[in-house]
Amino acid sequence: MFGYQIPRDYEEAMELDRKNGNIKWKEAIDLELQQIDDYQTFKNIGKDEINAKGQITNAPEGYKKIRVHLVFAVKDDGRHKARLVADGHLTRNNTEGAYSGVVSLQSLRIVMFLSELNALKLWGADIGNAYLEAFTEEKIFIVAGPEFGNRKRHILIISKALYGLRTSGARWHDKLFDVMRDMGFTPSKNDPDIWMRPSKDGKVYEYIAVYVDDLAIAAKDPAEICQILRDKFKFKLKGDGPLEYHLGCGYWRDPDGTLVADPKKYIEKMIEWYEKEFGEKPKKIKTPLEPGDHPEIDESPECSEKDQSRYLTMIGQLQWRVALGRFDVFCATMTMSKFRPAPREGHISRLKRMYGYVSETRTAAIRFRTAEPNYDDIEVPQHDWMSTVYGNVKEVIPEDIPEQKGKPVVTTSYVDANLYHDVVTGKAVTVILHLLNQTPIDWYSKKQGTVETATFGSEFSAARTATDQIVDLRNTLRYLGVPVKERSYLFSDNKSVVTNATIPTSVLSKRHHALSYHRVREAVASGFFLFHWIDGKKNPADILSKHWTFVSVFPMLKSLLLWRGETKDIKDVPTVGNKDKAN
Description:
The protein is an alpha+beta fold. The chain has 14 helices and 21 strands. The strands form five sheets. The chain has a six-stranded antiparallel β-sheet, sandwiched between helices. The chain has a five-stranded mixed β-sheet with strand order 19-18-17-20-21. Strands 1-7-6-2 form a four-stranded mixed β-sheet, with no helix packed on it. It starts with 9 loop residues before the first helix and ends in a 21-residue tail after the last helix. The C terminus is likely disordered.
């Protein structure tokens, strides 16, 4: 790791210190144990007493003995780190009290968007040794090993939620729940790891997004929140300040002040790993995969055991990069993920190509543009749906949403399907790109569950999935207290599907399309979104649906991931023009 040999246990750590002529690993262990003691994690009841059968005679009654071990790592700045972890697998599996969630990346991006939209300050903070802030409910003890110094062979009862215990995550979640409630925050019903409260002037909501011990704070005065966490609740915060790096993604601003979510640092680590693993730089490539490529029919030899391990690592890195905002490789990553159980040499060659593309486009990033899109050129159809099976249908709005505050938001979605994406199974791919105002906020690329024999069927199936996701997105925003504009926009490049979905008198031609047909048409009849045709050359969902040529998608990539400043200054931006009329 970063050129250092990582020990597997305490004895090997001490041996490496002797070989290296330093005490870096010992200092890391001592620091970890000192921090654990600062939190009064253990209750020492004295040295163990062993009988002739090797049994501990003075073990605390009703407590189970487990083990602990040390996990070692080296940070990118050379700091040696040690973490004491409990062997929680030795305890009883209590699933009822063990669950603890984390904020989804979609919700995290929404919080950042709302911070920019409503002129909040965006801070990050890390709660040091977060689990040790909570008490454990498990009755367990350990017998201290040599790493504990003069406490070796002492019986130590674990009283805090030590890392590795099955229930530690849940106990920390309970502790943070009490803290957030005390500060006036309540969890969103859509994502309970987003905490929200009205600002002091009552005009907007403030938010805290929680990913275990990492906080993203969007508030009028995040410094005050951090100070309360320190002074009142005695949390040891690290790195609190304007958000610069969070969950593998860097954050900075363009010259015009636009917030940028930039995974460049993570990509650089990916490339560094690649160069060390393969002994060469990735080749310069302009597309993730060859246009029209079908890796499912690759018949090259199966990978060696070493390359199989590399393949798993590379897929994992690519999937996280997609999650951080690089949806331009979503289709390729989704396609190549299916070969993880038994990759072939041709498959790992394709991943190498994808790394080359990543390296060439490492400056691509999500920008949080909050201005509302201008859809004045789109004609809204005036159809009477009363005489159809849908009647006077209306959008169902949850009754328990909080009061809406702040600026309103428009959702825009682009949908596409790629028929016969997999020539072995015959399945198509559904892809969807969602935007809040002008900010890409979520993306989806997945093979469909059934085989369709024509583009019409695959596109209608994709439109149904998009409809469900739009409903979910609108309600997610409502549960965050966001005013959602009356109408959302869904764009497709299939005229037949748009026509069948938006004209009341159109008829269902194939019964196996009935669910998709009625789901989309009922949503259109309710009026909460407008389903509109767009030229395929301007549909950014194409980026997620197929293996494209650079020339065909560059204008869209430029506006979505590469351009600094206002997109209105770009030529050939994928927007709706005067010639695009609704059906």
